[in-house]
Write a structure and sequence with these properties.
Length: about 250
């Protein structure tokens, strides 16, 4: 009998099931990420690479429990950030943490499918997306829609795991994933499925070169990859780009 290769998609019927699995671990998700060295500092480093002026409207896509949203808000003294996620319970956790601290004119959360965002053309100053593009069923379609809603001259940043196409990078990630991420996160959250998916999805995601090429093909300019420091350098990057034109 032929063996069936386990892929990220084979863990779910389709990627649209991913938000429901996040619902299961949402209330303990912050504990798991807290134990990941440099997690919040890395998010802030990626937001800083957007070089925001401080008065923009920023969409934080796949915002989860709001850790990335707060990193955006740190750089928006006169602006606003809208956190968007498709996991209802993750958003509930974010709202419980932050709604009592910030007015709605500074911070809002909405449950939406990032693949189907209905914002007007050229309506958003900047977009941040942490650990999200990898979960989109169609990378190209998602990028085209983000390009559409971004204002000319607007900025976008992806904070994402992406492995070079070599044996060492993938072996390094598998060792981290199967011997650290999955066992530790499973003990904390009580569920292993989403973390098995995480490890598989990273292993199968586009390489940095392929992702930057896709951004260029979509129409983005000034596309750059920025590595994270220390042990995260081979696996985690910030990808920044601009929509051509000038902000008005």
């Amino acid at each position: 009998m032929a063996s069936t290769k386990l892929t990220a998609n084979s863990l779910f019927k389709n990627k649209s099931d991913v938000p429901f699995e996040f619902n299961r671990v949402a209330k303990k998700y912050d504990v798991a990420t807290f134990l990941s060295q440099g997690y919040q500092k890395d998010l802030q480093r990626s937001v800083d690479r957007l070089n925001l002026q401080g008065d923009e409207l920023v969409l934080d896509l796949c915002c989860g429990t709001g850790k990335s949203t707060i990193s955006c808000l740190n750089n928006l003294p006169n602006g606003k950030v809208i956190g968007i996620d498709n996991s209802e319970v993750m958003l509930n956790v974010a709202e419980e943490k932050y709604y009592h601290r910030y007015d709605r004119n500074k911070l809002e959360f909405f449950q939406k499918d990032v693949m189907e965002l209905d914002y007007d053309d050229n309506s958003v100053d900047a977009i941040f997306m942490a650990y999200g593009i990898r979960n989109m069923p169609d990378y190209s379609k998602a990028l085209r829609n983000l390009f559409r809603i971004l204002k000319p001259g607007g900025k976008i940043a992806f904070h994402e795991y992406s492995l070079n196409q070599n044996f060492i990078s993938h072996l390094y990630w598998k060792i981290l994933g199967y011997f650290v991420v999955i066992p530790v996160s499973t003990i904390i959250s009580g569920s292993s499925t989403i973390f098995k998916y995480l490890v598989k999805s990273v292993d199968e995601f586009l390489s940095p070169n392929d992702f930057t090429n896709l951004l260029c093909e979509t129409g983005f300019t000034n596309v750059k990859e920025h590595n994270m420091p220390t042990w995260r350098k081979p696996i985690l990057s910030t990808f920044t780009a601009n929509k051509p034109g000038e902000l008005k």
